[in-house]
Amino acid sequence: GAAKIDHSVFSGNWAGTGGGGGAIWNTGQMVIDESSFDGNATVRIAGSILNGGSLQLRACSFLRNLANLGGGGIVNYGELLSQDSTIAENEINVVAEGGGLTNGGKAVLVNTTVYGNSGGVGGAGISNDGSLVLINSTISTNHGFLGVGGILNSSLGSVVVRNSLILGNHSRSQ
User: CA 167 to CA 155: how far, in whole Å?
Assistant: First the structure.
């Protein structure tokens, strides 16, 4: 099915051991405009949104969300378009990847800022196993415990960067 969400707040939501997506688990078509996701959590993956469908984000913020096994902010296995959005200060608790965004599908980030996220073994900002396109976006000050602070691109992934900034990311192991 299809869903449209406008000017909404998702805060303090929790997903237990049965799934992921502290606030939303999407397998359909979803558009979210001018909404915030703050302080959501999950035992598994995707502190705020687990996407397996088509997801469009416009002027949204993902702040201080938490996941144990990856994707503190967002996990995408479908198609994700993020415009004018912020993914910041999300984290994962254990040795996993993708403090801000874990992408295993197709993700396009336009005018999106990914900063201050923390992760385990790599990709504290973004962990990519799919197709990732960054346009006019900033990936900065993400902190990995091991591996990569900014973007971890696996042998399965591809990354295209256009007119973007990737700066100030670090890892304890670097």
Answer: 22
41: CB partners within 8 A, 6+ apart: 13, 14, 15, 22, 47, 65, 66, 67
The answer to whether 166 and 142 are in contact (CB under 8 A) is: no
Task: Please tell me the pTM assigned to this model.
Answer: 0.95
Residue 40 contacts residue 8 (beta carbons within 8 Å):
no
Which tokens in the block code for residue 92? 């994962």
pLDDT tens, 55-97? 999 999 999 999 988 889 999 999 999 999 999 999 988 777 8
Encoding tokens for residue 58? 């416009």
Instruction: Identify the burial level of 136 via C-beta atoms within 10 angstroms of its C-beta, where 0-12 means exposed, 13-18 middle and 19 or more buried.
Output: middle
Q: What does the alpha-carbon distance between residue 46 and residue 13 come to, in Å, rounded to a whole number? A: 12
Please say whether the beta carbons of 96 and 125 come within 8 A.
Answer: no
**Cβ–Cβ under 8 Å, residues 90 and 115:** no
